[in-house]
Please model this.
Amino acid sequence: TQLLEQSPQFLSIQEGENLTVYCNSSSVFSSLQWYRQEPGEGPVLLVTVVTGGEVKKLKRLTFQFGDARKDSSLHITAAQPGDTGLYLCAGGVGGGSNYKLTFGKGTLLTVNP
Amino acid sequence: EAQVTQNPRYLITVTGKKLTVTCSQNMNHEYMSWYRQDPGLGLRQIYYSMNVEVTDKGDVPEGYKVSRKEKRNFPLILESPSPNQTSLYFCASSLGGGRGLAGYTFGSGTRLTVV
Model:
C-alpha cells in the first residue's frame, strides 16, 4: 500500500498570508491529484498533475509535482477565508483498469478574517 | 447539473438493523466507489465497481455489501450495522476505465451513527 504523508496536519493563518502544504511519499506515482473538502461536503477535484516537475496554476493556487514524482506541494498566495477547508492529495499508481488512487489524510486549513 | 447524489444525508440507527445508503450519478461514469472518512484515518475505500455487475473489495470491506445492477446506481448495504461503522460515508464516480484517473466526483456524504 502506497502511503501519502501530508504536512502540516493543521494550519491556521490570517487573511492575506501565503502558505504551502506538502504531500510526500516513498513511492512513485503516475499522477497526483489535489482536492478541497469544505465542511459538510464531499471533496472537490482542484487539479491533476502527471509529469515530473509539472507546475499548474489555478488563480492564487500553485501546484507542483516533484521531479521524481514522489511528492507534491500546494502553494496559496494571499489566502482568503474562502480557502478554508481540508486539502487532500491523492496519488495514482498503475494504469488502465489497474490504476488505483490512494488519498492522504489531509491538511486542515483555516484562514481567519 | 452533473452530480453524485447520496441519500440520506444523516442517519441514526440501532445495532443490527439493516440499512441501505443509496448513490446515483448522472454522468454515465463507469467507475463508482464508496469511502468512509474517519478522524485521523482519512478516506478509506470500502468497495468499488468498474462497471455494471463488476464489483471488488477496497481496503475496508468487512461489514459492507454493494451491488451494481445499473450503471447509474451503486448502493451501500450494511446488513447488521455495528457502532464501529459510525462514520461519514462518501460515494464517488469517475469517467473512464481507470480507478480514478480522471478524478473523482464525490457526493455530499452520509453521516451515519450506529447506537
